[in-house]
Amino acid sequence: MKLVKKRFEDALISGLRRLPLVSFYAGTRGWYFVVSWCHRITGILAVLMVLIHMDRFSSAPDSGKFFLVTFFQWVLSIPVIFHAFNGARLIQYECWGRRDDENMLRWVFGLLLVFVSLLALFMIVGGQRVSPFFYWVLMIAGALVAGYAVGAKIWNTKHSVFWKLQRVSGAFLLVMIPAYILFIPLHPAFSRFLKGVYVLLLLATLYHGGYGVWSVVSDYVSSRSLQKILIGAATLLFLVLFWIGVRVIVRA
Fold it and tell me: What is the pLDDT of residue 8?
């Protein structure tokens, strides 16, 4: 088993080294730098996924029957779920000091493989249904527990309230995003109850993504004036996206 795992990891790393940009940063800054930037990029994809999904299912709920649309939805879920599971790894380090990155990354990719395989099965089989109320009551309860656990651990630290809320929203979305992606092939329709769930999901996603943009700007833009301009523009953009998203959901 260990030999198979090592061969798989060696093959994966060998394939990644063939990508010029990945190879350069892996060789000069290390693989964890590459993983860090993958986390940030996939965070943007998570925001886009929520917006695209809500628009698609409000305007054309039967479009999931087309193979290419369904396949695109499945492909888009891969980086998004990676972001969620890798976020769990980061939360464990920040909140509980766990820094076994090598094994943790194996768990991230292992769980990712299991999840996308399960999602593909649901999409291929089709015809499955689940009670939206029962499903989302359980998932929201789990998400609130995860958010509370992280919040209780970090709330008395010296970090800003916005930083704390970003981590809490990350723990909340760790449950909500995978739950949302799995729910779509099980119940691709809107209802009043689901509209409330989706507005909550949209709010948490945009806040989490917006703070992520703020952190990137703070890390890589040295000019205070330019920082304020970029952060102001990003804040306005995310507020507009929230307004558009709510309108789409309400009109569905």
Answer: 59
